[in-house]
């Protein structure tokens, strides 16, 4: 009999029908919102906690402390609740109210940092709390168990479900765990695959996608695992998010819209190929942001 964690992964791979007409070039959306807590971060969260418990880095009763822009926090809150672990999540105050509500529903404590400080402020606050002995930070930004989760699951699923035909993999880059682990696996089975990362255009703010200052670039990031990085604007990411819902029936978050903008750019350049783009989460946790019409 399966527990909740056993239902993480094996998410649907959906062929686009209207945003891109399938032919010699096919574009697939991998629907990570179908994970139990609603995002791709379920994979890393459950894996990081499992590995930390196996190694004895945390034990029952250990308080987890983690800076998050939302999805990792939700996933960690779910995974912590399953195992009875207390957790404090630290996030910028401008993250959507739905995210905070879901985290609290799972029993997490939340601390908000000034929006002007961005994720960097949340990271610094978490580090200070850990230094003060208030808990343990799994640290999604430097923890190798984050990309390992995708090496063990996301990559193999894409290879299996495309029957080895995938030629391009497109992913938004936040912590970069998804693109690092998935690209590592896909390159092992298909060395000529093209890995495309997506970041916000200068001045754009897209939840879940970061343009990192050099001092805060995630330690797990390895530039050699990404062949191209495409910049996407906030307006085009939001419009694509709405189009995914209207034209494909995929209610997704804004980072997923940004990744799909990049995927369709790549598709327009090809004569043949199979593109897989990560749809990171569900759109219902963005309703208060105004991205969808009221």
Automatic annotation (TrEMBL):
One of its GO terms (biological process) is cysteine biosynthetic process from serine. GO terms for molecular function: cysteine synthase activity. PROSITE patterns: CYS_SYNTHASE (PS00901). The modification N6-(pyridoxal phosphate)lysine is found at residue 41. Residues 6-281 form the Tryptophan synthase beta chain-like PALP domain. Pyridoxal 5'-phosphate binds at residues 71, 174-178, 255. Its EC number is 2.5.1.47. Its cofactor is pyridoxal 5'-phosphate. Belongs to the cysteine synthase/cystathionine beta-synthase family. PANTHER family: CYSTATHIONINE BETA-SYNTHASE (PTHR10314). This is Cysteine synthase.
């Amino acid at each position: 009999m399966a527990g909740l964690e056993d239902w993480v992964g094996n998410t649907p791979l959906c062929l686009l029908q209207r945003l891109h007409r399938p032919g010699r070039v096919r574009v697939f959306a991998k629907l990570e919102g179908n994970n139990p807590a609603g995002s791709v971060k379920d994979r890393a969260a459950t894996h990081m906690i499992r590995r930390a418990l196996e190694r004895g880095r945390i034990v029952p009763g250990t308080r987890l402390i983690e800076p998050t822009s939302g999805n990792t926090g939700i996933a960690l809150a779910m995974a912590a609740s399953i195992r009875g672990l207390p957790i404090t999540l630290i996030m910028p105050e401008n993250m959507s109210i739905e995210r905070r509500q879901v985290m609290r529903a799972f029993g997490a404590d939340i601390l908000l940092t000034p929006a002007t400080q961005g994720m960097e402020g949340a990271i610094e606050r978490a580090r200070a709390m850990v230094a003060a002995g208030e808990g343990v930070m799994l640290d999604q930004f430097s923890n190798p168990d984050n990309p390992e989760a995708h090496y063990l699951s996301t990559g193999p699923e894409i290879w299996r479900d495309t029957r080895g035909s995938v030629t391009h993999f497109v992913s938004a880059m936040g912590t970069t765990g998804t693109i690092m682990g998935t690209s590592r696996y896909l390159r092992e089975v298909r060395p000529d695959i093209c890995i495309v990362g997506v970041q916000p255009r200068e001045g754009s703010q897209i939840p879940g996608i970061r343009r990192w200052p050099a001092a805060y670039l995630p330690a797990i990031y390895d530039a050699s695992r990404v062949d191209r990085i495409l910049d996407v604007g906030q307006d085009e990411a939001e419009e694509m998010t709405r189009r995914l819902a209207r034209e494909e029936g995929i209610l997704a978050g804004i980072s997923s819209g940004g990744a799909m903008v990049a995927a369709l750019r790549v598709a327009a350049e090809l004569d043949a190929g199979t593109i897989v783009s990560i749809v990171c989460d569900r759109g219902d946790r963005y309703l208060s942001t105004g991205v969808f019409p009221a």
